[in-house]
Design a protein that fits this description.
Length: 278
């Protein structure tokens, strides 16, 4: 088990207040209040239709909530686009990783943020500073203890675990306030999954908070400091890992357990068939 257990003192790195999202008459999120502190690994779990993807997309700037607020370092933040979220230090890795197969590791780490050479002329003609990208990529990977044969290798030639490590390293390089990982081990084997989980712990040890969306209960209890359960658009449980069990978490996911603050029939107007946001 992960040993890091940062205290929840001071101002949260990211906070949601009454976050709600409607799609027509369908409520995908209902009054979600969540605080995430530096160095925490918050596992976000729930069945299909629970609202996980909706919450992730709101935090990553993919769309704006119908109501509610997102605060970063205690100040209200308006995330109109993913670019807004990235500028404020929120980075997301979706299951497709968003890597360019024919581009090397350094190029992928700087994708959309490529440094140029020779000042104005370099920016005008797009002359990339490839040596700087490679040097900084090597440093970033070394800090996270990521082993890749060469940062000049195209990511398309790498294993699934190495590609996942590259994607996580990119978010850690730019995401100072929050990293969001969507099913980071879903397509990995046992050894590669272990390496990805270790990388998540190493990122958290640097004080960067993470949200990890996962259906893998074993992995959740391996890395998470807290486990947040969404059900039918509502946050029904926010549990310290050391104070709960897999059975209790599964109970909240399925509805066998209900939060004392949330009626058992809450959120019945939410799509739970899996056709709406996860």
């Amino acid at each position: 088990m992960s040993e890091h257990a940062p205290g929840r003192l001071g101002t949260p790195a990211v906070r949601t207040i009454g976050l709600s999202k409607w799609y027509g008459s369908v409520r995908a999120l209902s009054e979600v209040n969540l605080e995430i502190y530096p160095g925490e690994v918050v596992a976000l779990v729930g069945d299909n239709g629970a609202g996980k993807s909706t919450l992730v997309k709101a935090l990553s700037g993919a769309f704006q909530p119908t109501s509610g607020e997102i605060h970063i370092d205690g100040a209200p933040a308006r995330l109109h686009t993913p670019a807004d979220a990235r500028k404020l230090g929120i980075e997301t890795v979706y299951q497709d990783l968003a890597l360019v197969a024919h581009v090397d590791v350094g190029g992928n780490l700087y994708l959309g943020r490529e440094p140029t050479r020779w000042g104005v002329i370099g920016r005008l003609f797009g002359i990339l500073d490839l040596p700087a990208m490679s040097k900084h990529a090597e440093r970033a990977l070394a800090e996270l203890k990521v082993t890749i044969p060469s940062v000049r290798s195209p990511v398309g030639t790498m294993s699934g675990g190495q590609r996942q490590a590259t994607a996580i390293a990119r978010t850690a390089l730019w995401g100072s306030k929050l990293l969001i990982l969507d099913e980071p081990t879903a397509a990995l084997g046992v050894q590669e999954s272990e390496e990805a989980l270790q990388l998540i712990e190493d990122v958290a040890a640097q004080g960067i908070p993470l949200i990890v969306v996962s259906h893998n209960i074993e992995h959740i209890f391996r890395i998470a400091t807290r486990i947040v359960v969404l059900r039918q658009g509502r946050l029904v449980a926010d549990l310290d890992r050391g104070d709960t069990s897999p059975d209790e978490v599964v109970g909240y996911i399925t509805g066998a357990r209900t939060s004392a603050a949330v009626p058992a029939d809450a959120g019945d107007d939410v799509d739970t068939a899996g056709s709406g946001p996860r």
